[in-house]
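Lecture 7 notes: from sequence to structure.

We start with a single chain of 503 residues. Read the sequence below before looking at the structure.
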Amino acid sequence: MTGSCKIIPAATLRAAATVVSRGGQYRLTAMFANDERPINGYFAIYAIFTDKEDGTFKTLKATINQDEPLAFPSLTPIMAAAAWYEREIHDLFGLVPEGHPDLRPLVLHENWPTGLYPMRKDFTINTPIPDERSQYPVPPVQGEGVFEVPVGPIHAGIIEPGHFRFSQAGENIINLEAKLFFTHRGIEKAVEGLPFDKVIYRTERICGACSVANTLAYVQAVEEMSGTIVPARAEYLRVLAAELERLYNHVGDSGNLCAGLGFAPGTSHGARLKEHLMRLNERLTGNRFLRGWITLGGVRFDITEDMIRDIKQTLTMVMNEYSEIMNLLRNNEAFLDRVNTTGILPEKAALDLGVVGVAARASGIDADVRRDFPYAAYKHINFHVPVYTSGDVAARLWVRADEAFESAKIVNQVLDGLPSGKSITELQPVKPYATAFSLTESPRGSDLHWLMADNRGNVYRYFIRSASYPNWPALTVAAPGNIIPDFPLINKSFELCYACLDR
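Now the structure, written as tokens:
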């Protein structure tokens, strides 16, 4: 996916973004920086806008010459979705979004030295990093009877680290401050200069639950840059992999949500059915997370008639039992009492923050990359995109359940309509400094991967925006007005990922 790209001076970025967005018709989908001083003598800020109505993209490339003040007008005052992107640009590149309302560090923590920017090209693995001990300011909530409850970053379960600070008045949450990015891996920096085929191993491991979605977004961007045409059979098999990934996530997440309110039958059955699906993944690919299947130019191996029968039989069994579980939940008054009207994310807030995936569709936003910007073989597949409007925990569960049944239908369509022919082709050469990006719909929502090649045909810049990235800020909107015992339930209903931030 490329679309149009307009190069502008950084000083005009806010005015240009106002024009391009057309009052919100084109949504800000990603924003990031690139150190292009070795090529052009400037830093570049990219802002990608998408419009699902006509399936088009518009990119603004704002340039800052290296001998100019390293600043640009912040988009956050006119587009709340830009807030995290600009804080990350400030952390990693040292470019200042002037007018940003909250420039506290986002990715870098208190031990990182001031003035050292890891995504600049003059920062190498040999750059010394002194330890610093700065303070992270947390705005206080004041008033009679207000108190704070800190949670994390180390949690009781086997989960990744995140710090949550609740401001409370009685049992009600007034405000939630979330501090994340505790185990950032620096993947975007680590792959600089690597051949494109070597980067796949890092991409597959950005997040276990979205391995297929991330890998597919990456390879499609490389194939776009190189002009490689993927065989039709491989395109169908890629859809098969993506929907099997969505299925085991949605089925398992339905059970995980039950754990958030102590409904043990739903938790146990969800985990059991997820295990059946992950064992199917392993029988097909040798990996429970479907790693190693998608590659540049297609897929690494084909499927057999025996595998097709195995998939259909397993899905029939799993979906029949999953239907029984969902019927149990839909008719359990005690369960419904906990999920209805809990953790509401209003549609306006979801639009302003650029929320994607299940969370967006549960708040009334009719958007799905598979339908709106079809990739692989999705343009040949018929499926329904479920949309609810209540924006609560219940809506996010019902969207997830409806999508699971749609995924099973998609899998059967793929298997019944699988074309003959090759499943892989040779990747064509990538031109120096070529750029491209790709969107895929992961179980959590849209993933965007942007790539730029260097003059040797290797990676110059790799930017990853996972579905969790725009969705995490929505949690701080949905939590206030609820009680702390409902927070695990609200959190699980968004199914947010720490690893997708710590890329």
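The mean pLDDT is 93. Keep this in mind for problem set 3.
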